[in-house]
Write a structure and sequence with these properties.
single chain; 98 residues; alpha+beta; 50s Ribosomal Protein L17, Chain: A; 3-stranded antiparallel beta sheet; 3 strands; 21% strand
Length: 98
Amino acid sequence: MRNLTNDLIRSGRIETTEARAKEIRPLVEKFLTIAKKQNLAGRRLLLARLQNEKTVERLMDELAPRYASRTGGYLRILKSSKARKRDGSQLAIIEFIQ
């Protein structure tokens, strides 16, 4: 889950299974809420949870100011009509709202 959240924060949009998208959505929204406080304790907490400094920098410096006036609902899950060939899992795209 950590790698999936890091990829989402780094790229802004990923394609994964619908179940995984629903699973990481609350995690990323909590991380963004912590980043919006813009304090050292929040930065350290995010660094401990995400374990990637570039991801934390992007979260604190780019994404948090963009959603400063928004109280929640930072992500969107779009269900795809595609399914994976090997197991038939439904795919979805999870992305940040502009």
